[in-house]
Here is the input.
Amino acid sequence: MCEFDLRSGALCPSCQRKLERGEVTRLDIDVLTALIDQRYQFLSNAEYAGSIRLRNKIFVALRNLEASSQEAAELSLQLSRRLKSLVRVLRDNRSFTDFLAEVLSPAKILAINVVWLPDGTEETIITVDDISKLQFPVEDIIEVTRALKGRVIRIEKAAPRH
Ligand SMILES: [Zn+2]
Here is the structure.
């Protein structure tokens, strides 16, 4: 997306074609437009990785976000005001394991196991220490992971020790 388009609110022919081909969505444009007005230092190296709207929430994934959790929360709040929806900023990562660690924090990942289902699809089962510590609902984490990473996951709590 061109910054000029985002500032002017009109799309150039090249970006218009990207929208028509589905390479960018209307939501991407709305989120990027809100993001370019944010003046935070910690956004200077940040890279937009995608957004997904789930029910009343918008998850915005950013790479190289050099923000503390408090700063990320502040950005979420600013974007929520601009987009008039509850926005949650996520730290995206090219590494699937690092991405999972981020979306599941502050819960800790104890194990990751990939299983093949009878229909030939793959499911990643993630065992965490405590589901009640998750900052997002389990269904949201599952959908965000499917949308951003194309992976089907299941989240399980560690079996109690005997
Ligand atoms: Zn453009």
Q: What stands out?
A: Helices lie at 3-8, 13-20, 26-36, 69-83, 96-104, 138-149. The chain has six helices and six strands. The two ends are 55 Å apart (CA to CA). The beta strands are 47-54, 57-63, 86-91, 109-116, 122-128, 153-157.
